[in-house]
Structure formats: structure tokens, C-alpha cells
């Protein structure tokens, strides 16, 4: 990859959401915004190798995209109708101040997560418009065909247009009922960056993790007393703190117990721990019990509170997963609990638990089984489980780890 190619890829990762959000604010139409942004990047692919990378790629892309959007509107035979729709979408009607937070991407996030849209449509649209993921990448995450996902995103954009859903952060009274859907989407954006499912050279996409954190900070400024917002921010910070230690120099995923903890970001860990302690104090003083994100943050706080993996308090982690199951009894939560049980009660007990789970299409299920079977000396079964995990895994760094561990089993 040339330096210009790298600059274009980096600009797409870093500037896509900003360009789309800026155009959406100006023109009030997600289709126009997305198409014009895509055209601007296509022009960059043609021009930058010849003219050089501009000093401010984001400004160049935004200017180019604006010109393309104006050209498209001028070509439309029903230009007046388009402009009326844009005015309705922009919704400049004064509303209650929300702490003077002015951020186009936050407005775009709330627009994409409007309750009028079906939950799966909110997630897909946000991953496309805010996260900048391609339709094939989103289709992979949802395990559906690309055409199906493309149609889902198109229907969501059409509904926003037809219902005149405004491009703005909702009023204060509407925030609590809207925030859970927004947090779910932000966590998915973060997870896609944390362990990328697309065909990227980098197993970790820091542009997505950092943008998810940035937006979550803004949501927290809107709702400073919301425990789940604080919990999600703490969770993201504690995971992000380990980012540089998660992939080896050879491109292989590094397990938590094998990471160089000296390379963890101590400032992020301190901030995450402070948020967890803050929420624990609220609960101890009679506040509402912790939700999913707060419990996950507490689990990660336990992991990041020791400098040696051997000192991890697995009994506390199992207890937190027991609490988590009362909130979310999904098979994936039970799988993660079983991983902790293996450290506390041994691999045989954990294997008995996960073999009751219906997760045959989930690569982490087979990877966990493979590890437990290896620890029990059942190499043949372990190899078969690794094979299935490798078949299902999409992240290159994770495939590299699983392949090495499988090959270490030797020949039977």
C-alpha cells in the first residue's frame, strides 16, 4: 500500500462520520449526504495520487462532498420538494437547551437511533452512517446477505425522510427513553473497532473505538446521573486501555493473561476505575441496581486491578457474572461465566457448563471448548474444536492465535 493509499484509508476511517454528519446538517437528507461523501472519497482516490494529499484531508473531503451534493440537488427535477424536505428535516425550531453540546455526529447518532426505526435498522444505519462500515461488513456482523442489509439501510433512511425525523439531539425529557438504544449501538461500534470483523489489515480499528468513546462522553455530559452511560464509558475505557497490548508484532491476537500489562494505559484505567467506584457508591447508598454495562465494567475493573494475571480474583468475577445473568441470561454471558469458572473450579466443570449452550455458530464457543479440552488432555477433540473456531472466526489476528494453539497440540 502506498503512502497515498494509506492516507485515503486513514481519512475514510477518521473523517467519514464527520463529512456525512456535516452534509446531513446542511441538506437534511441522509441519501444525499452518504452519496456525496462516497463521491468525495472516489474523487480523492483519483486526485490525491496526482495532486498530493491535501494538508487538511477532512476539510478537502467536506468541501468536495458539499459541491457534489449541490450538483446533485441542481440536477433533481423536483428541487423545490427536496429543499422543503431538507427544511423539515433540519428542524430549526427552538427547544430546551441541553448543556450547549454542539456536535454534528451526536445529532446524527440520535437521528439514526430514533425509536420510530426497528432496533436492527437503528444499529445497521448507525454502523453505516456514523461508524463508516461498509454494507458487506455490516451484513457479516448480522449474518445476512449484502442485498438484505442494503435494503434494510435504505428503508431506514426512507423512513427518516418520510416521517420528517429531525436531525438533532432530543429534548431533555425524551433522553432517558432514547438512551438505551443509543448505548447499544455505541457498544457495537466500539466492539467492531475492538475486534474488527472486516477485511482490514489492522485487527483493531482505533478510529472506531475512539469515536465510540468520544460520543459516549458526550452522551454522559447530557445524562451525567445515568448509571448505564457511566458504566458503558468505564467499560470502553478499561478495554481501550489494553489496546496496544492486544496484538503482537507478528499480527497475532494476545490473550488477556499473556498481555504485557506494563504497556496498558494507566490513565484510562484510573478513569475507568473511578467511574466504577462512583457507581458502586450510588448502589451502596440505595440507588438503583447496576445494569449490564455497569456489571461488565466492574468485571473489567477486576481484570485491570492487578499487575499479574495470576493474582486475578476469579471468585469475584464469577460472582459478578452471576449478577449479570440476572440482568442478561444469554448464552454468551453464560459462556463468559464458564471461562471464569474454569479458572476457579477447573476445566472439567466449565466444559460441562458450556456444552449445554446452543452456540454452534459462534467462534468463541468453539475456541473456549478447544482450550478446555486441551487442558484436559483431549487433544483430538481440542483440534476439532479449534478447526471449527478457525472456520467461523473473521478477524485475522484471532485466526492466527487459534491456528498456532491448534498446531501446538502436535499430531495424534
Please provide a brief summary of the model.
The chain has 412 residues and is mainly alpha-helical.
Give the SSE map.
Elements: H1 3-27, H2 30-51, H3 57-75, H4 79-90, H5 104-112, H6 119-129, H7 135-142, H8 146-162, H9 175-194, H10 206-222, H11 227-240, H12 266-284, H13 292-303, H14 314-327, H15 331-345, H16 347-354, H17 363-375, H18 379-392, H19 396-407
Walk me through the structure.
By secondary structure, this protein is mainly alpha-helical. The protein has a domain at 332-412: Alpha Horseshoe (Serine Threonine Protein Phosphatase 5, Tetratricopeptide repeat). It contains 19 helices and no strands. Helix 11 packs antiparallel against helix 12 (266-284). The longest helix is centred in the first third of the chain and has 25 residues, at 3-27. The radius of gyration is 23 Å and the shape is globular. Mean pLDDT is 87; it is low at 87-100. One of its GO terms (biological process) is DNA-templated transcription initiation. Residues 178-278 form the DUF6596 domain. InterPro entries: DUF6596, RNA_pol_sigma-70_dom, RNA_pol_sigma70_r2, RNA_pol_sigma70_r4_t2, RNA_pol_sigma_r2, RNA_pol_sigma_r3/r4-like, TPR-like_helical_dom_sf, WH-like_DNA-bd_sf. Residues 76-95 have a biased composition (Basic and acidic residues).
Amino acid at each position: 500500500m502506498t503512502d497515498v493509499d494509506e492516507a485515503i484509508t486513514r481519512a475514510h476511517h477518521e473523517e467519514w462520520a464527520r463529512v456525512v454528519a456535516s452534509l446531513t446538517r446542511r441538506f437534511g437528507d441522509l441519501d444525499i449526504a452518504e452519496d456525496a461523501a462516497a463521491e468525495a472519497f472516489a474523487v480523492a482516490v483519483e486526485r490525491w495520487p496526482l495532486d498530493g494529499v491535501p494538508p487538511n484531508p477532512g476539510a478537502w473531503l467536506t468541501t468536495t462532498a458539499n459541491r457534489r451534493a449541490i450538483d446533485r440537488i441542481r440536477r433533481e427535477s423536483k428541487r423545490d420538494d427536496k429543499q422543503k424536505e431538507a427544511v423539515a428535516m433540519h428542524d430549526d425550531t427552538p427547544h430546551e437547551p441541553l448543556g450547549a453540546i454542539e456536535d454534528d455526529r451526536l445529532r446524527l447518532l440520535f437521528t439514526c437511533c430514533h425509536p420510530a426505526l426497528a432496533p436492527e435498522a437503528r444499529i445497521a444505519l448507525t454502523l453505516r452512517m456514523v461508524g463508516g462500515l461498509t454494507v458487506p461488513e455490516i451484513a457479516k456482523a448480522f449474518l445476512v446477505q449484502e442485498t438484505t442489509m442494503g435494503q434494510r439501510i435504505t428503508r431506514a433512511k426512507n423512513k427518516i425522510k418520510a416521517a420528517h425525523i429531525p436531525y438533532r439531539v432530543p429534548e431533555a425529557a425524551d433522553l432517558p427513553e432514547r438512551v438505551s438504544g443509543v448505548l447499544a449501538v455505541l457498544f457495537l461500534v466500539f466492539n467492531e473497532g475492538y475486534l474488527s470483523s472486516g477485511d482490514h489489515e489492522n485487527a483493531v480499528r482505533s478510529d472506531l473505538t475512539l469515536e465510540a468513546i468520544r460520543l459516549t462522553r458526550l452522551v454522559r455530559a447530557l445524562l451525567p446521573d445515568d448509571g448505564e452511560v457511566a458504566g458503558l464509558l468505564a467499560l470502553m475505557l478499561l478495554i481501550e486501555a489494553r489496546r496496544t497490548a492486544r496484538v503482537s508484532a507478528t499480527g497475532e491476537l494476545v490473550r488477556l493473561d499473556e498481555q504485557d500489562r506494563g504497556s496498558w494505559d494507566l490513565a484510562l484505567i484510573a478513569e475507568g476505575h473511578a467511574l466504577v467506584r462512583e457507581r458502586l457508591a450510588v448502589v451502596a447508598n440505595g440507588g438503583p441496581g447496576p445494569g449490564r454495562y455497569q456489571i461488565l465494567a466492574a468485571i473489567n475493573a477486576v481484570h485491570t486491578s492487578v499487575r499479574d494475571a495470576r493474582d486475578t480474583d476469579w471468585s469475584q468475577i464469577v460472582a459478578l457474572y452471576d449478577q449479570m445473568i440476572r440482568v442478561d441470561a444469554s448464552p454468551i454471558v453464560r459462556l463468559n461465566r464458564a471461562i471464569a469458572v474454569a479458572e476457579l473450579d477447573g476445566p472439567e466443570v466449565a466444559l460441562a457448563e458450556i456444552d449445554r449452550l446452543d452456540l454452534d455458530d459462534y467462534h468463541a464457543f468453539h475456541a473456549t471448548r478447544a482450550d478446555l479440552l486441551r487442558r484436559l488432555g483431549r487433544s483430538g477433540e481440542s483440534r476439532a474444536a479449534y478447526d471449527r473456531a478457525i472456520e467461523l472466526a473473521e478477524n485475522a489476528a484471532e485466526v492466527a492465535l487459534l491456528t498456532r494453539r491448534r498446531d501446538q497440540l502436535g499430531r495424534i
